[in-house]
Amino acid sequence: MSDTHSVGIVAPQTAHFSEPLALKCGAVLPEYDLVYETYGTLNAEKSNAVLICHALSGTHHVAGKYREDDKYPGWWDNMIGPGKPLDTNRFFVIGVNNLGGCAGSTGPKTINPATGKPWGSGFPIVTVEDWVTSQARLADSLGIKQFAAIVGGSLGGMQALQWTLSYPDRVKNALVIAAAPNLTAQNMAFNEVARQAIITDPEFHDGDYYEHGVVPRRGLRIARMLGHITYLSDDAMGAKFGRKLKHGEVKYSFDVEFEMESYLRYQGDKFAGEFDANTYLRMTRALDYFDPAADFGGDLSAALKRAKADFLVVSFTSDWRFSPARSREIVKALLDNELAVTYAELEAAHGHDAFLMPDKHYHDVVRAYLENL
């Protein structure tokens, strides 16, 4: 896509909050920072704002580049920009790094003002509800009383859904993409295996590895490799790698033999060099805990009775981690409350990662919905 469809060079901003934040776990953050980026222009009425909620390993850097020679733009650059589905000629788009993150917002690797050392294991468990509360405070600081839309995929979609429950009058539209109303037991099991890989790494040091000058790299590698398998579909993996040998012949060893192994190791190494292990633990726990129906005897329709927004719910046929059936649960509960819902179940080969891909049909659905706002 040409540069005319890019938001161009962008820069992160930091908002500091000195008002304490009471968390769902019972802990209180005395103060905190949120790092965010904005694209487009906020109109005079402040009515064209769109919040992007990120998934497990996402950040505030959603679109554009920091330098012309950056190899990779923001993680949803194919969706956001002038003339793109989320058109920055119309909307003022905000990307924020969640509390507990490792891309600048207050989290385990930032300094705890009470000790002068990184928070480490002392950083509290945060939830989707906590993130939404902190995001609402960011909106307050920007003078935004109501969002035209809140958009998210995967864990980001859960945040978009929670926004409609925590602040029903502040969300006109919620785009809930490749998400679920809670995790299945199988999904929770994947998360636990990933956490155990990190926690049992000898370099983890009970979460205080910063003080030892090390990183639980082996655990992070395995966690990412496991996660990556669940983000892709069998068909996508087969089409990309199949049973192709790395060296053209079998070596009869436990080193890399197949292209798939090489790919997973590359992804694991890359992730371990960029992401924080304590953040990974907290993000997966937030996924586990999210369950708006829990306080309503498991009745999702009763839980969503508070919502007032209009909804676009999108799922992908090859997504076996957050299957279309889970999105249909959300749709049914919304319809039970006579809310306006558009549902799209899209053919896509990429598995759970399909929400990140520049698929034309998918982008056309999002574009059409947003054009009708």
UniProtKB/TrEMBL annotation:
<keyword id="KW-0486">Methionine biosynthesis</keyword>
<protein>
    <recommendedName>
        <fullName>Homoserine O-succinyltransferase</fullName>
        <ecNumber>2.3.1.46</ecNumber>
    </recommendedName>
</protein>
<keyword id="KW-0012">Acyltransferase</keyword>
<comment type="subunit">
    <text>Homodimer.</text>
</comment>
<keyword id="KW-0963">Cytoplasm</keyword>
<keyword id="KW-0808">Transferase</keyword>
<feature type="binding site">
    <location>
        <position position="224"/>
    </location>
    <ligand>
        <name>substrate</name>
    </ligand>
</feature>
<feature type="binding site">
    <location>
        <position position="353"/>
    </location>
    <ligand>
        <name>substrate</name>
    </ligand>
</feature>
<dbReference type="GO" id="GO:0009086">
    <property type="term" value="P:methionine biosynthetic process"/>
</dbReference>
<dbReference type="GO" id="GO:0008899">
    <property type="term" value="F:homoserine O-succinyltransferase activity"/>
</dbReference>
<feature type="active site">
    <location>
        <position position="352"/>
    </location>
</feature>
<dbReference type="GO" id="GO:0004414">
    <property type="term" value="F:homoserine O-acetyltransferase activity"/>
</dbReference>
<dbReference type="Pfam" id="PF00561">
    <property type="entry name" value="Abhydrolase_1"/>
</dbReference>
<dbReference type="InterPro" id="IPR008220">
    <property type="entry name" value="HAT_MetX-like"/>
</dbReference>
<dbReference type="InterPro" id="IPR029058">
    <property type="entry name" value="AB_hydrolase_fold"/>
</dbReference>
<feature type="domain" description="AB hydrolase-1">
    <location>
        <begin position="48"/>
        <end position="342"/>
    </location>
</feature>
<dbReference type="GO" id="GO:0005737">
    <property type="term" value="C:cytoplasm"/>
</dbReference>
<dbReference type="InterPro" id="IPR000073">
    <property type="entry name" value="AB_hydrolase_1"/>
</dbReference>
<comment type="similarity">
    <text>Belongs to the AB hydrolase superfamily. MetX family.</text>
</comment>
<feature type="site" description="Important for acyl-CoA specificity">
    <location>
        <position position="321"/>
    </location>
</feature>
<comment type="function">
    <text>Transfers a succinyl group from succinyl-CoA to L-homoserine, forming succinyl-L-homoserine.</text>
</comment>
<keyword id="KW-0028">Amino-acid biosynthesis</keyword>
<feature type="active site">
    <location>
        <position position="319"/>
    </location>
</feature>
<dbReference type="GO" id="GO:0009092">
    <property type="term" value="P:homoserine metabolic process"/>
</dbReference>
<comment type="pathway">
    <text>Amino-acid biosynthesis; L-methionine biosynthesis via de novo pathway; O-succinyl-L-homoserine from L-homoserine: step 1/1.</text>
</comment>
<feature type="active site" description="Nucleophile">
    <location>
        <position position="154"/>
    </location>
</feature>
